[in-house]
Amino acid sequence: MKVEDFDYNLPEELIAQTPLEKRDSSRLLVLDKNTGNIEHKIFTDIIDYLEKGDTLVLNDTRVLPARLIGVKEETGAVIEVLLLKNINNDNWECLVKPARRIKVGAIVSFGNGKLKAECIKVADEGIRYFRFIYEGIFLEILEKLGTMPLPPYIHKKLEDQSRYQTVYAKEIGSAAAPTAGLHFTKELLKRIEDKGVNIAYITLHVGLGTFRPVSVEKVEEHEMHSEFYQMHKDVAELLTKTKKNGHRIIAVGTTSTRTLEAIMNEYGEFKECSGWTKIFIYPGYKFKAIDCLITNFHLPKSTLVMLVSALAGRDNILNAYRIAVAKKYRFFSFGDAMFIK
Fold it and tell me: Where in the sequence is the domain holding 133, given as residue range(s)?
């Protein structure tokens, strides 16, 4: 299977640069994965497609203000550091630009020395491991000095940092937002619950894979980076009950999907667990956990286009994307949504 098979033409002006004023006012393309039929709605209409007894699964990860701009102490060179993964205590895996300037022992200073990072290990693809040096509480310092790590295709400054968090974000640890969840408001979630739909939260901390394009020619040769996930006992029991009663599990976002499928692949059931997953879902994969998916429109040739193609069929997805382009839907993180039913 070729990566090129998941390409499509996207005019740059359709890449959403800012979020809409109202989260739930984005457009919603509804795709029937069995027939390929398409409907055009507004996101608040999602409630019409959810049924009593269904379970909506959301990823409650919270994005770290993980992008830091500092200077190399020895030379004064400007260095950008993106925190990706907490290894232990104050040691972090980071993505660095320009990485060639940072060798073991180099120290980067942020906020006039309020925070310092000493490089303790060098890895490939711009990855460096740092030991952070500071006084006080790390997350509080990060809130003051860091900014949201917006994807590289967003060029406008985000005026309100909270718009790159879901309204239910709780567990700190992501390098990027689970963007399908950005469309939900607390009011819409309440209406969904009032309809008799269950709402469950799992956690997957979005990591390096979000920032890495697929660089191989054959899909099967691509390797995902590992990401931490967690499911609590009450959620596992609810999901098991949902399946047993013949109702649907509806994942909000590809991160929720990957978490649920990873757990089913590992254990053959939903259970209280946590761990690391490198699950890569592409056409040919047999879904064991989810029935439907709420997602955004994804980058050409990305692992996320491959995932939605595995669920709905490549031809259905590429046709839906062609129609979305023709109808000028907004794409990517701050863009419009798709419901695969």
Answer: 67-145
